[in-house]
Amino acid sequence: MEHCKQESRRQALYVWAVNYLTLHTNYQAQDFSIVSGDASFRRYFRLHHTGGSYIAVDAPPDKENSRPFVAIAQALYAHGVHVPQVISYDFELGFMLLSDLGDTLLRPCLTDDSVNDLYQQAMRELVTIQSCPSPVDYALPPYDSTRLMTEMALLKDWFIA
User: Fold this and answer.
1) Does a structural domain hold residue 161?
2) Residues 6+ apart with CB under 8 A from 62
3) Contact predicate 57/42, CB 8 Å
4) Around Cβ 68, how many Cβ atoms within 10 Å?
């Protein structure tokens, strides 16, 4: 039953994303494939099109609140932080379309010649993030000791179990 529901949502996400391409671009959809999931109910798909690719996100609205993600992503992007651009979203459906930053991870790129430059770039990015004001339409919750302990408790479920 769950598989049928996921497949139905995947198909609906594909139709929604292709509709965006049709209405807002001159691109044609070419391929739609799963990228990954994360430690939530969200699923990520890569929509290849004639102009490149987007990441389509399925975040079931009964399980995920995408509003904070969109508000924070838009605020960070507006301040020059290298995050996916939110191209389109539908909160009621739980769908988002994001720019595709690719699959390259930092660790495999680190060499004796590149490590200093790459970490300096990362530090500059962190400074940029710290200097961003909070999004106007979403107040970030305080990161206090209670929040820290809650997140530390996730270690057992996410990394040890």
Assistant:
1) no
2) 94
3) yes
4) 15
Looking at 27-31, 82-86, 147-151, 157-161, which range is the least confident one? 157-161
Look up the CATH number of the domain holding residue 109. Answer: 3.30.200.20
The whole model's pTM is what? 0.84
Domain that holds residue 48: 1-156
Q: How far apart are CA 85 and CA 54, in angstroms?
A: 10
Which amino acid is residue 35, in one-letter code?
Answer: V
Say which amino acid occupies 33.
S
Span 94-143, pLDDT tens digits: 999 999 999 998 899 999 999 999 999 999 999 999 998 888 777 778 88
Sign of CA dihedral 159, 95, 46, 110: negative
Q: Quickly list DSSP for 45-71.
A: EEEEETTEEEEEEE--TTT---HHHHH
Q: What are the b/e assignments for 88-123, b being 16+ CB within 10 Å?
A: bbeeebbbbbbebeeeeeeeeeeeeeeeeeeeeeee
Domain contains 127? yes
Beta strands in 19-128 (DSSP E): 29-37, 43-49, 52-58, 86-90, 95-99
Query: Domain total for the chain?
Result: 1
